[in-house]
Design brief:
There is one protein chain. The protein has helices at about 25-35, 45, 50-65, 80-85, 100-110, 115-125, 130-145, 155-165, 215-225, 235-240, 245-250, 255-270, 290-309, and strands at about 65-70, 75, 130, 195, 200, 230-235, 275-280, 280-285. By secondary structure, the protein is mainly alpha-helical. It is globular, with a radius of gyration of 19 Å. About 40% of the residues are buried. About 45% of the residues lie in helices and about 10% in strands.
């Protein structure tokens, strides 16, 4: 998890391409077979896509924290990247489990260094109904006030378009390439919808009953690790501070919904976490060490057992 800092922001690196189905799997698998893939002169042959799309695939792998930049080999896998996508032992290399999509959403939306616009939208922008123009104006204000390196209006507009195309429902456009008709996997989360009149976008806070507790738990433990604190108020889990993302904001979950999920998480990690209420204030305490990757391992192991039954 990376903090927001004014001199570490990124806009427009996606080459106007939103994250597509299969890109993370394709990028990671081909990188494993050819470790110098993103340092080669022509990785387009290996990946079977155009040059700009190669750049976008690498970008989304970094934005999703599946890989990180490496000076000698172009990129290097992160721990979560290896655990999810390893060819023989990966938990969910083809992203068939809903928890994987929610997890990747958290990894992108909590990464202000590489996915600044998405981080900003889910953590700093809270209007439940808006137009793309309103989003652009608000993002422009945020960049002017908080980023040392400025971005051109055209770049910010592209970021808004990619955000809405990636998380919102697809609308077919006549004459558009077939691949553009494939929604991003993030659209399956239902975090952005169109209004009935088609003129506005909606992003409503709900109880998120279908949010896998493993993904929520990973985000909570990720935040506690970043804050270097064994206790965190419910308010901080709900709303981002100037540096770090918040699970409640990223997952667009109500306070009651978050409490329900935290209670479920506590049952999954007996003796490790406790939710206490003092004078009407809820606070989550970590009583003993609990590893966010081990929580995910338990989830995927359970999923495999259910599939085999």
């Amino acid at each position: 998890m990376t903090p927001f800092t004014a001199n570490r922001v990124a806009f427009g690196r996606h080459e106007t391409f939103h994250l597509r189905f299969g890109w993370l799997t394709k990028g990671y698998r081909n990188w494993c077979e050819t470790p110098e893939l993103f340092g080669e002169d022509d990785p387009t042959v290996v990946l079977g896509v155009g040059k700009n799309m190669v750049t976008a695939i690498r970008y989304w792998m970094e934005a999703a924290q599946v890989v990180q930049s490496a000076p000698t080999r172009g990129v290097a896998p992160t721990k979560i990247g290896r655990l999810l996508f390893a060819q023989d032992s990966g938990w969910d290399p083809y992203l068939e489990d809903d928890a994987s999509l929610w997890l990747l959403h958290w990894l992108i939306a909590s990464n202000p260094r590489d996915a600044t616009a998405i981080y900003w939208y889910f953590n700093r922008y809270h209007k439940p109904e808006f137009t793309s123009g309103e989003l652009f104006d608000a993002l422009s204000d945020f960049v002017r006030a908080n980023a040392k390196s400025k971005a051109a209006d055209t770049t910010l507009k592209r970021d808004i378009n990619v955000l809405l195309r990636m998380y919102g429902p697809h609308e077919a456009t006549k004459g558009a390439p077939l691949e553009d008709g494939l929604d991003s996997p993030m659209a399956m989360l239902g975090l952005i919808q169109r209004s009935s009149d088609g003129k506005h976008y909606l992003s409503r806070v709900t109880e998120r009953r279908r949010l896998p507790v493993a993904a929520l738990g990973y985000a909570v433990l990720d935040l506690m690790e970043a804050l270097q604190d064994n206790s965190v108020p419910l308010e901080r889990l709900m709303r981002a501070d100037p540096q770090y993302a918040a699970p409640g904001a990223v997952f667009r979950i109500t306070e009651d919904g978050l409490i329900t999920k935290l209670e479920e998480l506590i049952r999954c990690l007996p003796g490790s976490l406790e939710l206490r209420e003092t004078a009407g204030i809820h606070q989550l305490y970590r009583l003993q060490s609990c590893d966010k990757h081990e929580l995910l391992a338990q989830h995927y192991a359970g999923t495999r057992l259910e599939s085999a039954a």
